[in-house]
Design a protein that fits this description.
This protein is mostly beta strands and 128 residues long. The chain contains no helices and eleven strands.
């Protein structure tokens, strides 16, 4: 079993930055694919980005087109933590942000059904 604890959400003005953190339990964290998703009021949950291992110590990332160039995913395996650095935030980025772990396929999938563990979410609000 894997538990995910998120932090870093809050209120920020348009154009500002925010950094989300997600700390995971599990001794094989470095092998997990870690994803970020978000859900705005009245909307379906959507893929934001993910990071997965491609080699012994090499990782690759995938991003939704809506955030590419503005958001960056990174991880610190020594701390069992994945980060979502959000820059140039827009009101349209307002949502509850979730981190998720894929401990099985480990492939940075855009499909939420492939992730087997989820955090509880953290609210990000971007004002105009």
């Amino acid at each position: 079993q894997v538990q995910l604890v998120e932090s870093g959400g809050g209120l920020v003005q348009a154009g500002g930055s925010l950094r989300l953190s997600c700390v995971a339990s599990g001794r094989t964290f470095s092998s997990y694919a870690m994803g970020w998703f978000r859900q705005a009021p009245g909307k379906e949950r959507e893929f934001v980005g993910a990071i997965a291992r491609s080699g012994y110590s090499t990782y690759y990332t995938n991003y939704a087109d809506s955030v590419k160039g503005r958001f960056t995913i990174s991880r610190d395996n020594a701390k069992n933590t994945v980060y979502l650095q959000m820059n140039s935030l827009e009101p349209e980025d307002t949502a509850v942000y979730f981190c998720a772990a894929d401990t099985r396929w480990r492939s940075s999938s855009r499909d939420e059904k492939e992730y087997d563990y989820w955090g509880q979410g953290t609210q990000v609000t971007v004002s105009s």
